[in-house]
């Protein structure tokens, strides 16, 4: 027997549940992602980049500002100036002086270049003569002609195996303010570089110093070419503005990624400190979390939907069974009959075939109840129902029509065939022991049979069967009768 009807459309409900769950998960996951993204972005702009910048700045101050002061002291040193003015005679005196400055201040090198003789003195003595046509000496002639008191210059140091060195080149004047040479100390940029490299690897930031023209002068990785800022279109477009503003926060696009940039001007060095963070790299972690969360949400949605599908299916079939069957006998109830007969008549209209109704009633059932009690009566009802049901074909259906009354619907059967089946059933019930605990209890059935006529309603056909049944009851019961065809 097929299920008579569906209370709810399970597929639609599951689809709706899955949709609601996935929308809910998707919305909360995305919301979380955007909140985290904004928080990270604000932290980078408001704290991380400025903090990195100020840490490096203070380290630079520690490393560079002191040498500027030392170089200034050297430029104003009376001994140094007197020694030049006296004619640069005792080279040993000068080299001792420079060696002492170098050792005392832990400098990488110390020097003096005389304007008069062109000699380049170091702590070790005379290094060389500077010459205007020698590119490596260009710095001296630049310092000689410049307006400022000093400059900071990053160059390979000839006196120290060409190690990259920051020189503080201070102009020296005699007591009448005539230019007499340049002095100062040099220090390695390695400590600054180490610091920059550390920040770069720890926080994936790009850090470098530029001069006033935007040329990179110190860069974290000595093995790589320093970045050419004007070759990066996003940055190049704002570079002059950045250098003019000196300090600020900027952002630009490079290689498809958004870059956040903090710039600080270091007046002591006349350099700019650039601290750059690739926003997309910084957000890689939250993006990864987003994907993981979405995958988990999807999995949870699938599991919940699947479990709901199974559970709903189970309950739905239980509810359907409860709503359509008689609790005591397990036969269909009248409500289910209404739905099934409509379906049957619809198919009958498409494909006409005979339909026969068998209305069966237990004879003297009241006496069984009265004599053996209602429990035994129930048992008789249940067993007679089982017997009736066991004889049905797949297309037939049995309904508990009243208290001890049953309706059998036999599609494809004529009234005469129905009469034969009724007789077979009558005999089977008569032979049966409907109460196994008490074999003495026997019962019989009376049948009224009618063949459905297209001109009538099912109720009218059943009424005709009822009249035939009544006739059997009147003539002694335990019999079958075919209702005359509808006139
Ligand atoms: N045990 C039990 N009895 C029921 C149930 N439903 C109806 N009955 C009883 O069935 C009896 C039917 O009695 P009647 O209508 O007089 O019919 P009958 O005793 O079978 O007599 P005839 O039909 O004339 O042969 C009533 O006493 C009802 O109370 C039920 O579910 N269980």
From TrEMBL:
Gene Ontology MF terms: diguanylate cyclase activity
Transmembrane residue ranges: 12-35, 290-312
CDD domains to which the protein is assigned, alphabetical: GGDEF
Catalytic activity: 2 GTP = 3',3'-c-di-GMP + 2 diphosphate
Family annotation (InterPro entries): Diguanylate_Cyclase, GGDEF_dom, Nucleotide_cyclase, Rev_trsase/Diguanyl_cyclase
Keyword ATP-binding annotated: no
Record's keyword terms, sorted: Membrane, Transmembrane, Transmembrane helix
Domain GGDEF: 353-485
Entry keyword Protease: no
SMART domains, A to Z: GGDEF
EC number in record: 2.7.7.65
UniProt protein name: diguanylate cyclase
Species in which this protein is naturally found: Azonexus hydrophilus
């Amino acid at each position: 027997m097929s299920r008579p009807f569906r209370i709810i459309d399970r597929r639609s409900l599951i689809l709706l549940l899955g949709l609601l769950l996935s929308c809910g998960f998707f919305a909360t996951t995305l919301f979380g992602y955007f909140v985290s993204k904004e928080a990270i972005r604000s932290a980078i702009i408001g704290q991380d980049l400025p903090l990195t910048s100020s840490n490096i700045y203070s380290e630079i101050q520690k490393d560079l500002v002191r040498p500027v002061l030392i170089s200034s002291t050297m430029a104003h040193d009376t001994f140094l100036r007197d020694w030049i003015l006296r004619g640069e005679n005792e080279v040993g005196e000068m080299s001792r002086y420079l060696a002492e400055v170098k050792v005392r201040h832990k400098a990488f090198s110390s020097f003096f270049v005389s304007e008069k003789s062109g000699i380049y003195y170091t702590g070790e003595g005379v290094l060389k003569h500077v010459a205007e046509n020698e590119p490596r000496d260009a710095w001296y002639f630049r310092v000689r002609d410049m307006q400022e008191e000093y400059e900071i210059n990053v160059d390979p140091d000839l006196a120290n195996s060409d190690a990259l060195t920051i020189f503080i080149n201070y102009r020296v004047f005699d007591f009448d303010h005539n230019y007499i040479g340049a002095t100062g100390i040099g220090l390695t940029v390695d400590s600054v570089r180490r610091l920059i490299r550390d920040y770069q690897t720890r926080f994936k930031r790009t850090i470098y110093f530029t001069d006033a023209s935007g040329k990179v002068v110190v860069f974290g990785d000595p093995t790589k070419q320093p970045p050419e800022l004007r070759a990066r279109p996003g940055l190049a477009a704002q570079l002059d503005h950045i250098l003019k503003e000196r300090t600020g926060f900027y952002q630009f696009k490079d290689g498809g990624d958004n870059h956040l940039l903090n710039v600080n001007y270091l007046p002591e060095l006349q350099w700019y400190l650039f601290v750059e963070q690739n926003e997309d790299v910084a957000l890689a972690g939250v993006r990864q979390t987003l994907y993981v969360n979405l995958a988990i949400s999807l999995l949870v949605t699938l599991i919940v939907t699947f479990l709901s599908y199974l559970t709903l299916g189970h309950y739905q079939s239980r509810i359907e069974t409860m709503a359509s069957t008689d609790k005591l006998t397990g036969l269909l109830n009248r409500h289910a009959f209404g739905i099934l007969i409509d379906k049957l008549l619809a198919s009958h209209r498409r494909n006409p075939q005979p339909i026969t109704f068998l209305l069966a009633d237990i004879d003297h059932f009241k006496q069984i109840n009265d004599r053996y009690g209602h429990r035994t009566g129930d048992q008789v009802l249940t067993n007679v129902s089982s017997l009736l049901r066991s004889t049905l074909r797949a297309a037939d259906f049995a309904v508990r029509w009243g208290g001890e009354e049953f309706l059998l619907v036999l599609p494809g059967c004529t009234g005469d065939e129905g009469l034969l089946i009724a007789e077979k059933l009558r005999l089977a019930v008569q032979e049966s022991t409907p109460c196994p605990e008490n074999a003495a209890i026997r019962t019989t059935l009376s049948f009224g049979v009618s063949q459905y006529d297209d001109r009538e309603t099912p109720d009218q056909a059943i009424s005709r069967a009822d009249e035939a049944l009544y006739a059997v009851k009147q003539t002694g019961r335990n019999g079958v009768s075919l209702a005359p065809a509808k006139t």
